[in-house]
Prior knowledge:
- By secondary structure, the protein is α+β, with helices and mostly antiparallel strands.
- It has two domains: 3-95; 100-218, Cytidine Deaminase, domain 2, CATH 3.40.140.
- Helices cover 44% and strands 16% of the residues.
- The protein contains nine helices and five strands; from the N terminus they run αααααααββαβαββ.
- It has helices at 12-19, 26-34, 43-53, 58-62, 66-70, 77-98, 107-118, 155-164, 185-201; strands at 125-131, 137-145, 169-175, 204-212, 215-218.
- Strand 4 (204-212) and strand 5 (215-218) form a beta hairpin.
- The radius of gyration is 21 Å and the shape is elongated.
- 29% of the residues are buried.
Amino acid sequence: MGINTWAEGDRPREKLLNQGASYLSDAELVAILLGSGSSKLSALDLAKGIMARFDNNLHELQKSDHNQLIAFNGVGPAKAVMIRAALEIGRRLKQSKAKHKAPIKCSADAYAILEPILAHKAHEEFWVLFLNNRNCLIQPLLLSKGGLTGTVVDKREVFRWALDLKSTNLILAHNHPSGSLEASLADKQLTNSLVEAGKVMDITILDHLIVSENGFLSFSDEALIP
Length: 226
């Protein structure tokens, strides 16, 4: 039975208009993105099937790729792109909220910026938060992208960008797709070398955060910044 034959209060679009988006389930929101279902399923039933495939978790759905989505009967390339675009807008919205003018005062403040960027990546990335002398964010920047277990960082690029952006304080960050929040020997060595190089240029490394789906580890909080 098509959605257009349902009671008006049960249709996702009408429900959003009459009650507000917060009253809709994740599946109902995905159904609105789909617009229509397949020959055998309504848009809502198709959306429920998609959510079930990803453990009814939007974070898991966000990790999906194009081929995983079009594998569902009733989801063509256009619908797959719509879903991925909506999820990316949600991720960027969280990131843009974190771009505030207030100074970063602690590791939790830095994590609020980095979590939507890094927590759910399936590969490792190295980012730097470039701050001014009041510890206000100038710009977050991706410096390196790698595989599942590591990425290579060019220390010269870190400080080139710091000089270009007139940044005096930096917060380093990378993710662990495995979920581990332990700092490896390589992580510690990289941090130490950047700290020492920064001293020569009067640029301070305030912290290095390891981010995963399980939270974060702060080198500063753990007294790992020399």
